[in-house]
Every structure is written in C-alpha cells, then in structure tokens.
Design a protein that fits this description.
This protein is an alpha+beta fold. It contains three helices and seven strands, in the order E-H-E-E-E-H-E-H-E-E.
Length: 135
C-alpha cells in the first residue's frame, strides 16, 4: 500500500463509482478541486481510495472520500484518513471536518472524529458534520 499526492482528475473515477454512480460523471467534480490537495492509496499500480482536502486558515474540510467498493474493509480508507490527519498537522490545521453520511459516522468516530449538532439532507441522503480538533 502506498499513499501519495494525486491530481483532482485522478479522483474522479473513484468518486463517481463509489459515491454517485447514478449521477452524470461531471457531478463528482468540484469547482474548487484545483485549490485542494488530493491524496490516494495505491495497491500495486491500482488507485483504490481517494480523499480531497480544502484548507481555509487553520481549518480544513475533507471531501469526496471514497474507497472502491470491492476493497472496502481492508484498511485503505483508515490509512488514508490517518495520512490526511498528519498532513493537516503539517499545515497547522487546528480543526479538520467533513460532511459525513450518517450511515458512515461510526467509521469517523473510530478515527477520533465527533459528531456536531449540524445535520442535513442531500439527494435523499442524511449527513452529519463531524470534526476533529488537532493539537
């Protein structure tokens, strides 16, 4: 397993396959993709998990975190999230947060994130804002 910085374009296929397979491909592209940092996990030569980080002062939001369905549960996403937390420390990020699908909140809690009281719906899915304060 290798974790490395990738381009926004590298993330799009996995974002589409995992997050929004029934939407048009362009739905997974973000206007701000070019301003973000993007990371991926490779198993051999195959990209299997991706995440994007968008910083604003001493806060950062990660978005479009996706692991190929056929390899979920093998620790790729956990390793990538751990790597992202280390990157946040390098950039002096004090608050790392995301809009988590409510059904996946337990995954983030295991990684040290806590639910906030902010929730919302998007395209029929329930979300909760989760955060982790970094030292």
């Amino acid at each position: 397993m290798e974790i490395r910085q990738i381009t926004a374009k590298d993330t799009w296929a996995i974002r589409h396959q995992v997050m929004w397979p029934n939407k048009p491909f362009d739905y997974v592209k973000l206007e701000e993709d070019e301003q973000g940092l993007h990371f991926g996990v490779c198993d051999g030569n195959k990209l299997v998990s991706v995440i994007s980080l968008f910083m604003d002062g001493d806060e950062a939001q990660f978005r479009k975190f996706a692991t190929r369905t056929e390899v979920q549960g093998r620790g790729y996403g956990t390793a990538l999230l751990r790597h992202l937390a280390n990157e946040a420390r390098i950039y002096a990020i004090r608050r790392l947060w995301c809009n988590a699908r409510t059904a996946k909140a337990a995954f983030y809690e295991k990684a040290g994130f806590r639910k906030t009281d902010r929730t919302f719906k998007k395209d029929g899915m329930d979300y909760v804002v989760m955060e982790k304060l970094t030292p």
